[in-house]
């Protein structure tokens, strides 16, 4: 089983739609969680950290469910510029490495 | 304020050759991590350097080695290149013990 699993997509959604991605992780010692965004042939960029109580940044909402070992990302009112690959990232307690999922590809259609 | 910078941006090598990639961290960052990203995959952790020492290593063979300099910049060396080493190599820096890593634009390595 992969340490971090994501549905690769693509998710094709119309502008203005709400879309949600889930990501599951296998190691209960996972300590820190992030969503990164990666545009085609570019570097990953931090979208948001994910906190236990859930957090929101504008149109983006992240949730963490430790009991079921998954994190989610909700994007409201999708824009064409949201088209990208969204990478789920987990860091284990006591380690220094980030473990990335394979990413979920989102296409927002006009 | 310059972000993480990597050089070169693209590189073409042949099997068996050796390559050195370079990374300058974001200002104020003292920790550098290296990742390999194959096409269609997420980045895979190679190793992390802090205080000029390799602090943690991922599941990569000894052909992959690195170095960190007193100014916190870093190099990634790969020996005996083979076709499967073709990938985007990403450098990420972070400030001390803080978790958040910031990535450079990467070096795209093609091994023919």
Overview of the structural elements:
The complex is a heterodimer of chains A (110) and B (112). Chain A has strands at residues 4-6, 11-14, 19-25, 30-38, 44-50, 55-57, 60-65, 70-75, 84-92, 98-100, 104-109. Chain A has 110 residues and is mostly beta strands. In chain A, strands 2, 4, 5, 9, 10 and 11 form a 6-stranded mixed sheet that branches. In chain A, strands 1-3-8-7-6 form a 5-stranded antiparallel sheet, with no helix packed on it. Chain A is globular. Chain B has 112 residues and is mainly β. Chain B has no helices and 11 strands. In chain B, the strands form 2 sheets. In chain B, strands 2, 4, 5, 6, 9, 10 and 11 form a 7-stranded mixed sheet that branches. Chain B has a 4-stranded antiparallel sheet with strand order 1-3-8-7, with no helix packed on it. The radius of gyration of chain B is 13 Å and the shape is globular. Classes of the chains: A mainly beta (110), B mainly beta (112).
Q: How does the SSE layout of this entry go?
A:
The complex is a heterodimer of chains A (110) and B (112).
Chain A: E1 4-6, E2 11-14, E3 19-25, E4 30-38, E5 44-50, E6 55-57, E7 60-65, E8 70-75, E9 84-92, E10 98-100, E11 104-109
Parallel strand pairs in A: 2-11
Antiparallel strand pairs in A: 1-3, 3-8, 4-5, 4-9, 6-7, 7-8, 9-10, 9-11
Chain B: E1 5-7, E2 10-13, E3 19-24, E4 31-37, E5 44-50, E6 53-57, E7 64-68, E8 74-78, E9 87-94, E10 102-103, E11 107-111
Parallel strand pairs in B: 2-11
Antiparallel strand pairs in B: 1-3, 3-8, 4-5, 4-9, 5-6, 7-8, 9-10, 9-11
